[in-house]
Amino acid sequence: MALFHSFSSFSLLFFFFVTLFSISYQQPVLNSAEQDSVYQVLDSINSDIPWRSLFPGDLCSSAPHGVVCDYFSETTSNDSSSVDTVHVVELNFGYVSDYTPNPPCSPNSTLSPLLFTSFKYLRKLFFYKCFTDTRVVSVPDITPSFVSTLEELVLVDNPSLVGPIGWLLCNLTNIRRAIVTGNGVDGKIPDGIGGLVNLAEFTLSRNRLSGEMPLGLSKLKKLKVLDLSHNYLDGNVPESMGNLTELLKLDLSYNELSGKIPESLKAMQKLEFLDLSFNRFGNFGVPLFLSEMLRLREVYLSGNQLGGKIPENLWNNLGGVTGIGFSDMGLVGSIPATMGLHLRNLCFLGIDNNKLEGTVPEEFGLLEFINEINLENNRLSGRVPFSAKLSVKMGQKLKLAGNPELCVDEGLRSLKNSSSLGKLKVCKKPYLPNPVIFCGDSSAQAQPKPRTLPSMFMIIGLLFIFMCQLDF
After folding, report:
1. Per its UniProt record, what Gene3D superfamilies does this chain match (predicted)?
2. Tell me, what's the pLDDT at 447?
3. What pLDDT sits at residue 134?
4. How far is CA 288 from CA 158, 269, 343, in A?
5. C-alpha–C-alpha distance, residues 280 and 306, integer Å
């Protein structure tokens, strides 16, 4: 009984202190002006949903997914004491999946000016497929209140969102991740972009950007991803781009860039993905400096008339490469056997639509991880070196059409999953394996020893012995 009374007394005392703490500390709520701005922005995104009825209370306590708040300690103006407040730090719009069910956009979505004036603590702004109707939605010419706080700007697949975006980006002094892809924004990338010194990921792909690449890009020393693909950029790639030594991915494909691929890119020793395809680089051959970029995993130069031969020694130090795109480049000469010898991790190889001749190296038959090879529309000849197992594995992704002098063994020609092989002629001579032996410098092919005929003296001696045995 005494134990029961002791426990009851402790419970009452604990309840007293919890109540006293609750009275002395009240959880901060979102101020009414900021809460009303959230409602109005939600209405501009989707007016068919009764946001105020569904979420009538404090939006920082109960808000739709995608509206995120955080606590701050602010100093009061009266007695310089600190007070806890709460503010909106993330606004995410556009349904992505059941795991991120952000407020869904409607065909009539608009961009409320309050979005740019009411949230001075905002860290992330996200729009996914919100402005897709034929009605144009312009980026307002307003200096946003979140210029010093925004860290992430993500605008994905909003084709009706138009207007120059350079002024907005250049004002975001703390931005770390800017992904603006698949929108209607246009104009030039301003040179002031170099002031965003904290930027680590910069993607402006699939927009309507034009003009030259600004020199200011080379000042983004923390940049790890740069993707300006699928725009209308022209002119040369600045030599100063080599200053981006932290870069892991560089994608400038599908633009109108011209001149020479700058050799300064070899300073990007951490680069793993390089795509310069479908520009206007030309007449300088495949860059030899690629052999010095030891961490390369994928390199795509297709659609540039670089011309020349595929360098034999380019691949000696690039054993980690998994993807190569050298299609439609005006390449001539033969396919070097060193590609099959050194690129043992290769998964994709595209060297179609060139002027390559000679045989397909037998070493290509040893590429155990290969999933797709495209050799179409060249001048290749001779026997196809792929085994039945490898041919079945690639199936339709083994592309050999447009090389009328290529041939295949009868057994491979009948494979059901390799229609490309089925269209090749059957080789007349049976296959005699003659593996190439490499020694010393692995890039140099050892020549087979010539076969010598028996000497005349040996033949006469054998005949003499034979005749003597007959007389005996």
Report:
1. Ribonuclease Inhibitor (3.80.10.10)
2. 43
3. 86
4. 40, 15, 16
5. 9
**At a CB cut-off of 8 Å and minimum separation 6, what does 259 contact?**
235, 236, 237, 281
The pLDDT value given to residue 472:
39
Helices (H), 401-455: 410-413, 419-422
Left, alpha or beta for 206 (phi > 0: left; psi -120 to 50: alpha)? left
Supply the CATH classification number for the domain 30-187.
Answer: 3.80.10.10
Q: Which residues contact 289 (CB under 8 A, 6 or more apart)?
A: 263, 265, 266
pLDDT digits (tens, 9 = 90+) for 223-273: 999 999 999 999 999 999 999 999 999 999 999 999 999 999 999 999 999
Would you list the domain boundaries of the chain?
Answer: 30-187, 282-439
Give the whole-angstrom CA distance, residue 183 versus residue 207: 5
d(CA 377, CA 101): 47
The widest CA-to-CA distance across the chain, in whole angstroms, is 135
pLDDT (0 to 100) of residue 388: 87
CATH of domain 282-439: 3.80.10.10
